[in-house]
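It is worth pausing here to work through a concrete case rather than discussing structure prediction in the abstract. The textbook approach is simple: state the sequence, then state the predicted structure, then interpret. We follow exactly that order.
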Amino acid sequence: MLRLGEIQTLRIARRVDFGVYLSEEEGAEEVLLPRKYIPAGLQIGDSVEVFVYRDSEDRMIATTLTPKLTVGQTARLKVVQVGKVGAFLDWGLEKDLFLPYRQQTHKVREGEEVLVGMYIDKSGRLCATMNIYRELSTDSPYQKDDQVSGTVYEVHERFGAFVAVDEKYSALIPKKELFGAVLAPGDRVDARVAGVREDGKLNLSIRQKSYLQIAGDSERILKLLEENGGTLPFNDKASPEVITARTGMSKNEFKRAVGHLLKEKKIVITEKDIRLS
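Step two, the predicted structure:
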């Protein structure tokens, strides 16, 4: 049986003027491989690896070109055109891949790169989708404290930012790890693996470990003090909301950094503010 949207090995069943017909076995369903894609020297009965998709007239067709995306995978593809019913993506074949509006997690723009998966719609056509959660793998090779890179594909107000690590592994930056960070679908992020869940999904942090983060946070506070004439109009007893709004840090991060600066005698804390020594 021919598998639409997949790379497969088929045999040459018969030759015609405009190409060859391929099938899995004698008497099985056939698909055309146009003449321009036939590797030199192949004869009837020989095997060839091809990708099966539909041409501009929705006919099943084979190609020896390798697409940038197959069914069950995810990939970053460039938007080459935006139309009334959706967008079209460059996936390395003559016919661009259709991304319907209803499968977009945000309105895409021409020239933008989007992370997508691929599915077969009710009409039997290959289409792209930005809803890739089910396409991502949970068997990543990463362990706690590994550094990883990935693409944000969804931001949820309650849970945090969902990330495709290496464009294929399922991960989440929990909401509590997003202090001071505004992420949107399509953003690239570098992160640390904070933990690996029992189901194999990764929990990520865009913050360093606390003992490494203190130095950076301390520098940020010193810079804020310098920018405000040497004084901040609040101290470490301020509400978490005020601290986060003014510094982009959680209250615990702020207190650790302030304690570090106080120990180094770089600041003075009063009942109302923090000042440079």
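Step three, interpretation. The chain has a mean pLDDT of 90. The longest strand covers residues 7-16.
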